[in-house]
Amino acid sequence: MELSPEIRKEILKAQRIEITEYHVYHKIAKTLPNEDNRHIVEKIGDDEKRHYEVWKGHTKKEVKPSRFQIWLYTTISHIFGYTFGLKLMELGEEKAQVNYEKISEEVPDALWILKEENDHENQLLGMLDEESLLYAGSVVLGLNDALVELTGALAGLTFAFRDVKIIALSGLITGIAASLSMASSEYLSTRSEETKKDPVRAAITTGIAYIITVTLLILPYLLLNNEIISLAIALTTSVLIIAIFNFYLSVAKDLPFGKHFLEMAGLSLGVAAFSFVIGILIRNWFGIEV
Fold first, then answer.
1. CA nearest 74: which of 95, 88, 53, 92?
2. Could you give the angle at the alpha carbon of 28 between the alpha carbons of 27 and 30, nearest 5°?
3. Mean pLDDT of 64-68
4. Cα 84 off chain centre by
5. Cellular component per GO (predicted)?
6. Would you say 140 and 182 are in contact if contact means Cβ atoms under 8 Å apart?
7. Between 286 and 196, whose confidence is greater?
8. pLDDT value at position 98?
9. Contacts of 72 (CB under 8 A, 6+ apart)
10. What is the Cα–Cα distance from 67 to 285, expressed in whole angstroms?
């Protein structure tokens, strides 16, 4: 049966997606040291090529892959981990799949391809065992603790002292001491658990996440002379850090974004608001003027 122009256009778009993802999967597979992970990624890539051949049988036309998307997703995978990169790519494909139902009106093959995309590939992606994701909990610990403690401390210090240099110095001392404390706690905690995680690496990961967060939150106080604007920027930075990291986890570990984002943001900003009030009360109670 001859395809209508509209359906042919949709199938050609699907063809381009499939052949592009075939190249992405195989490029990433070549970089994976773990044999099981490599075979899983190659298998998904071969599925994409098979889907491409099915579409080609209907259009009778070769389609070139998107070189930009191949570069984009392989680069993202190298920087943020292959699990995140591949799942992010699949999320983009899901948005393109909304027209598969329409295609199936003329090409019934679209239904089983859609089912395989949704079930089989997601199942295979869930089998990936990326070592760096083991330490996501350590990153969460460092980020969450730094955001909660330091946003609260900065809010309290801002309204207790109102001097950016004193606030920045106090925040740095608090942050560095707390990062060492958290790293030590994570080391002891991981060592006492039955886990694949290395205690030293878990401790370093927590400490680094804490210090990076501390640096970003205190930076406005080091660059600006207005403590209120510095606090506003620090709180905004806090929310952005929470949003970015929760987006990463929602993609890489299939966690709900909204729930975890609101939980972390609410906790961080709630402590900051409480500390804000405490800072004002202490300033007025003791009559501190700096």
1. 88
2. 70
3. 92
4. 7
5. endomembrane system
6. no
7. 196
8. 46
9. none
10. 65
Helix residue spans in 60-135 (DSSP H): 67-80, 82-96, 100-103, 109-115, 121-126
Confidence band of 290 (pLDDT split at 50, 70, 90): very low
pLDDT for 200-249, tens place per residue? 888 888 888 888 888 888 999 888 888 889 888 988 888 888 888 888 87
pTM to 2 decimals?
Answer: 0.70
3 state SS of 254: coil
Contact 171, 157 (CB under 8 A): yes
Contacts of 3 (CB under 8 A, 6+ apart): 11, 58, 59, 106, 107
**Residue in 127, 282, 145 with CA at minimum distance from that of residue 214:** 145
Structural tokens at position 39:
């075979």
What torsion do the CA atoms of 180, 182, 185, 191 make, to the nearest 10 degrees? -90
Chain Cα centroid distance, residue 200: 23
Q: What is the three-class DSSP state of 31?
A: coil
User: For residues 203 and 184, is the Cβ–Cβ distance under 8 A?
Assistant: yes
Q: pLDDT tens for residues 10-34?
A: 888 888 988 999 999 999 999 888 8
